[in-house]
Amino acid sequence: MIMQKIITVLSIYIVLLFAISCKSVSPPRPLMPIPTDEQLKWHESERNAFIHFGLNTFNDMEWGYGDTPSTTFNPIKLDAEQWAKTIKAAGLKGVVLTCKHHDGFCLWPSRYTEYSVKNSPWRNGNGDLVKEVSDACKKYGLTFGVYLSPWDRNSSEYGTPEYIEYFRRQLTELLTNYGEISEVWFDGANGGTGWYGGANEKRSVDRRTYYDWPTTIRDVIRKNQPHALVFSDAGPDIRWCGNEKGIAGTTNWSMITAKDYYPGCAKQKDLNRGEEDGSDWVPAEINTSVRPGWFYHKSEDHKVKGLTQLIDYYYESVGRNGTGLLNFPVNRNGLIDPIDSINVVKWQQHLDQDFANNLIKDAKVTSSNIRGGASRYDVTHVIDDNKDSYWATDDSVIKSHIEICFREEISFNRFLVQEYIALGQRVKSFKLEYEKNGKWIPIANETTIGYKRILRFKTVRATKVRFSITDSRACPTISNIALYKAPKILVEPMISRNKLGEVKVEAFDLEIDVLYSIDGSTFKKYTNPFLFDQKGCVEAYVFDRDSGKKSDTSSIYFDICKTKWKMLEPIQSAKSNLMFDGNQQTRFIRKVNKFPYKMTFDLGEQCAIKGFRYLPDQSRRAKGIIFDYSFDISKDGESWKRVLHGEFSNIKNSPIWQTKIFKEQTARYVRLVAESNVAEDTFVGVSEFDIITK
Ligand code: FUL
Fold first, then answer.
1. How many angstroms does the Cα of residue 187 sit away from the middle of ligand 1?
2. What are the Cα distances from residue 68, in Å, to 115, 511, 525?
3. Is the CB of 94 within 6 Å of ligand 1?
4. Residue 101 Cα: closest atom of ligand 1
5. With 70 as the cut, is the pLDDT of residue 461 above it?
6. What separation in Å is there between the alpha carbon of 44 and the centre of ligand 1?
7. pLDDT digits (tens, 9 = 90+) for 500-544
8. Cβ(656) to ligand 1 under 6 A?
9. Which of 314, 310, 303, 286 is nearest to 339 (CA)?
10. How do residues 296-316 score in pLDDT, each as one tens digit?
11. Which residue in 235, 490, 515, 661 could disulfide with 551, CB within 3.0 to 4.6 Å?
């Protein structure tokens, strides 16, 4: 009886003590700068869509000069809801539309210029694309933002103070007629050549002062759309990440000292990393396009990002404290091209699988320190699925760790961690380890975390994992940690063969089994490049032992091996050898004096030839794509016979392998003659050249 009383009194005492201790332990003081509510929401959106569409789409350009007539704008099947549905299916949360790009053409009927949709045949001049897109966004629950290019190559006033008035009026139209605007996007590209109302000249502006950004932002944006975030190289709310490849820095602070930047300031490296001691919260937006260009070009139909590139983009943007902005170059019909939508939808499905099951949920987590011993900052908050709760340590404790113990061994290959950034970005470095035979084995040693950091690594099996903060600007505040076992990526591998006949098979997933065959029936496990210097087909697929699933099979036919090949004209060199090195990413480019330009190959032996293949330069700004060609053969390298003469029709739009066949003939020497190129300049470019034998 007495014992029971003692226990009761003691428990009340403990509860009281606990309650008091909870009350008295104050939260960590915000470590300035910290995000606004709007910025926090934007971090949480994680991925948004960019749309580039306008006159450039119809003129096959990236930067229109501002002189092409508005009548060329005519997207006959335009359907903004198709855009919204695709973007939604890809898991993206909002849209930023290029309402006006550098060419000055407006996708809404601006009162202040004639250069807009109102003077195009689209919807008989009565259309307003900004309205259609903003309505579609509302309907599908997407946020809507506007891109208004500061540079205007059409306006006669560009470069004068009057233009700033014009620019602000247009901005006001966009901010007052289309409902809630989430983001206002200002490009850094500014000033240069342009049509400028017929002046056709170069106009330079002082990028730092010309637009008087503080006034524009205060009087136009904050007044009309107080919740909109302003993007530019200098923020003030969101910054560029310093590249258009979609890659955030592995160290990525959400801070910079904004006054040291301005749109077009060319501080790419700093923008990519941010600044640990930056005075302003200006997090990085990671923009890239699903195609090499921002606008649609038929010639890039075969260069759309595949699933594996999109997966990399996710981990290198969202996984590195960045918010993604993935661009869709809408096609001339006014639709997101089906080639572009297939992969982005698969992308979302893949990400859902990667993060389907947080293995830490049922584990025991302990920490080296809890702020004031208070339950409010207890480590269990890192797995409670509540973004508003967090684990924190005492102010004096910077180095600290969390240990995760599992009842039985688990396997994992992803680690996710989030700071409670409402109190500022703090962690400077951290490491992840697992225990094996009583020793801690490192998995990763990294720097910043921020809103979200995700690490990918080879599968680890363990019962104990330790996450340690090794340095921090102040006591850490961690809101979430997770471990996942992402499934293997079943994408068919890439097969290539070099000049010596060595075949390489490359899978995206480094842990997956790769199987290959050279006879079409027996498949062997691939470990290293192998010699295959004969004619024939190599096939390969990847196989996941865990699920028993395999990828599609890739198959490639190799003609005679090029081991004995020599270049005769232009002279054999490291550069000219790139024409037959088996690598489609390398290229031979030559500025020639005049056409025709001959490329002569010695095959090293007589062959029964019946055709050839030509792959033009595959780089973004491809050079020297041959249009008219001739093809000659010779037995002795002296007397030549022309077997083909013609054009690579449509090669400009479709710069893929070009195959030409003729009646079989014996020869040891072959010559590809470039008679003209598609750009009508004097370059000749070859990524790969191949012959087809009997
Ligand atoms: C760049 C622009 O010049 C491109 O045309 C594109 O709009 C891209 C998003 O930003 O700086």
1. 6
2. 10, 52, 57
3. no
4. 7
5. yes
6. 25
7. 999 999 999 999 999 999 999 999 999 999 999 999 999 999 999
8. no
9. 303
10. 999 999 999 999 999 999 999
11. 490
Whether 448 contacts 428, CB under 8 Å: yes
Counting from 1 in the atom list of ligand 1, the atom nearest the Cα of 98 is 7
Measured CA to CA in angstroms, residue 214 lies from 46, 209, 691 at distances of 27, 10, 62
Residue matched to tokens 């941010």: 274
Choose among 281, 243, 242: nearest CA to 419. 281
Query: Residue 540's closest CA among 490, 492, 489, 491?
Result: 492
State the distance from the centre of ligand 1 to the C-alpha of 295, rounded, in angstroms.
10
Ligand 1, pocket-test mutation among 105, 187, 286, most atoms within 8 A of CB: 187
Compute the distance from residue 74 Cα to the ligand 1 centre, in Å.
22
Q: Which atom of ligand 1 is nearest to the CA of 287?
A: 9
Is 294 touching ligand 1 by the criterion CB < 6 Å?
yes
Task: For residue 159, give the 3-state DSSP assignment.
Answer: coil
What is the distance between the alpha carbons of residues 254 and 263, in angstroms, rounded to a whole number?
Answer: 18
- State the Cα–Cα distance between residues 64 and 116, nearest whole angstrom: 14
Tokens 């629950």 label which residue?
A: 141
Q: Specify the residue with its C-alpha closest to ligand 1, atom 4.
A: 294
Q: What are the φ and ψ backbone dihedral angles of 40, each rounded to 5 degrees?
A: -60, -45
3-state helix, strand, coil in the chain (%, to 5): 25, 35, 45
HSE (CB half, 13 Å, CA atoms) of 269? 0
Cα–Cα distance for residue pair 159/199, rounded to 1 Å: 12
Q: Cβ(651)–Cβ(624) under 8 Å?
A: no
The H-assigned helical ranges of 25-128 are 37-45, 55-59, 80-89
Ligand 1 atom closest to residue 50's alpha carbon, by position in its atom list: 9
**Ligand 1 near 144 CB (within 6 A):** no
**Does the Cβ of 187 fall within 6 Å of ligand 1?**
yes
Nearest residue to 74 via CA among 124, 136, 132, 149: 124
pLDDT at 17 over 90: no
Q: Alpha-carbon distance 369 to 384, whole Å?
A: 18
> Alpha-carbon distance 546 to 411, whole Å?
12
> With contact defined as beta carbons under 8 Å apart, do 410 and 423 qualify?
no
Q: What is the end-to-end Cα distance of the chain in Å, rounded?
A: 102
178 lines ligand 1 (CB under 6 A): no
Average pLDDT of the segment spanning 636-662:
94
Which of ligand 1's atoms lies nearest the C-alpha of 149? 7
Report the DSSP pairing between strands 94-100 and 47-52: parallel
Question: Ligand 1 centre from 149 Cα, in Å?
Answer: 9
Would you say the CB of residue 240 lies under 6 angstroms from ligand 1?
no
Token representation of residue 400: 């600290």
Rounded distance from Cα 507 to ligand 1 centre (Å): 33
In this prediction, residue 7 carries a pLDDT of: 53
pLDDT at residue 606 greater than cutoff 60: yes
